[in-house]
Design goal:
It contains nine helices and no strands. The protein is mostly helical.
Length: 295
């Protein structure tokens, strides 16, 4: 399926939003650490102390990648760093408590939420499936993962056995992710339908503009021909009118006064015809000037 620029822009915007929110929360957290326990904040004695710093740096680096149009690399690096720093390395390098058996699968499911925001089945299918598989594996087998590195055997304090934990974790992951996939599919269908309608409207607009241009051109050509035709006719009419006026002028100066009344009527009609022709010439001249202004 072809890439959609608007969809890519939306994912770029979403990823930038998540990076900035992450930076804001981490900055707030580190600020509180410095204010309330400065000594502890600068010791970095455990891996947990390094996680905020690592995520802060990764967020800044991801923002820079987005700025230079490396959106897919930006999202991939951020998500890999998040999964490693939040759901994998803390288990390997930190102490496990009973609360870890609840917090770890929640963080894994949170990672799956970001997968749906960052990647698309249509645009990044294999990366999308790769991260979903990692998320499902980490969530479903969270208990066994924690159990393996639980040196203090805190699992003994848990109210459920390992099978129950696996079932609850897996069902929670499947329910949440299927819901997200369903919502996303609906949104994608609405988006593609809207895009299709926009394409149709754009095509109709271009077609209409082309038709208007063709009609306008034809009208201008017809108008030009009519103006030219009328202009010629007006000048053709001027010739006989001028001759009539000349004859009338000669008759007026002659001594034959018996036809004086007829001559007066002839003169009056000739002047009226001359005025009509003059007005027609003025109108045609104005029409030509307006036609030039339109061009």
């Amino acid at each position: 399926m072809n890439s959609h620029p608007e969809e890519l822009k939306r994912r770029m915007y979403l990823s930038n939003t998540i990076y900035w929110i992450t930076l804001g929360l981490l900055f707030f957290y580190l600020g509180l650490e410095v204010i309330f326990d400065f000594k502890q904040a600068i010791e970095f004695s455990t891996f947990d102390d390094w996680v905020p710093i690592l995520l802060f740096l990764v967020s800044v680096f991801s923002l820079l990648l987005n700025k230079y149009k490396y959106g897919r690399a930006s999202r991939t690096i951020f998500l890999l760093s998040w999964i490693m720093a939040v759901t994998v390395l803390p288990i390997l390098l930190s102490n496990i408590s009973p609360g870890s058996y609840l917090l770890h699968p929640i963080l894994c499911i949170l990672s799956s939420l970001m997968i749906h925001l960052f990647f698309s089945w249509y645009e990044d299918r294999w990366i999308y499936l790769f991260f979903l598989a990692i998320s499902f594996f980490l969530t479903s087998f969270s208990y066994y993962f924690l159990f393996t590195y639980d040196l203090s055997e805190s699992f003994r304090q848990l109210p459920l056995n390992k099978i129950q934990f696996v079932v609850i974790y897996s069902m929670s992951w499947v329910f949440i992710n299927l819901t997200l996939v369903y919502v996303y599919r609906i949104n994608w269908s609405a988006y593609t339908e809207l895009q299709h309608k926009n394409d149709i409207i754009e095509h109709l607009n271009k077609s209409l503009e082309t038709k208007v241009e063709i009609r306008t051109k034809l009208l201008r050509e017809q108008n030009s021909k009519l103006v030219e035709y009328a202009f010629v006719n007006a000048h053709v009419l001027r010739a006989p009118v001028s001759r009539i006026l000349g004859l009338v002028h000669l008759l007026v100066k002659s001594e034959a006064n018996q036809d004086k009344e007829i001559i007066n009527h002839l003169e009056e009609s000739s002047k009226e015809l001359d005025e009509v022709v003059r007005n027609l010439s003025i109108t045609l001249r104005e029409a030509k000037e307006e036609d030039k202004n339109l061009e």
